[in-house]
Every structure is written in structure tokens, then in C-alpha cells.
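Hey, I was hoping to borrow your eyes for a little while. No rush at all, and the record is pasted right below.
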Amino acid sequence: MSVTRDRIFELIGAAARDLNATQPAHKPFEPQEDTLLNADGGELSSLAVVTFILAVEERLGDELGRPVQLFDDSLIADPSGPFRTTGSLADHILGLVRTASA
């Protein structure tokens, strides 16, 4: 199954809504291309980032019909890595999906 970057971003948005259901109502997480995740000034706590990534994994796995693992300690700790913004996360996921289907 081919998944587009736009579809990946829709799944990221759905995972954000899942996360928002567990967060204080006065501070919803609304991902845009340049929304910071794990960098200084990021919108999410460390725990919320992990929860969000796991929700993205679950939604992506449902979409693809197979388990997907995005969480990686070395990547999540890298301030310039794929978990820096929601846009870089979408790019990272698209690369993983393309590699897996090649």
C-alpha cells in the first residue's frame, strides 16, 4: 500500500487529537509543518512526545496493516533529527514507508 506525505500528516493530526484527549484542555497540541516537538521551545513535554510518537505508530500501523516502529532513543534525543518538528517527522515516516515497500 502506498501512503502519501499528505496522508501521513493526516495520521499525525489524528494522533495529536488522541494526545489532546489526555492533555489539559487549555493547551491543545495542533501540529503544523514547523511545530517543534523535542527542541527548545517545543510544544510537548518529554512524556507527551513519547505518547504522541506511540499514537502515530499505532495509527500508521493500522493504515499499513502491519506494525510500525518509529520510536528510537537515539533519534528522539537528536535535536536536529526526525523528531524535531512534525514536518520532519512526516518526512522520516515517508522515508521509512518507501524503504519498507522497496
Remarks:
- The mean pLDDT is 87.
- The chain is about 55% helix and 0% strand.
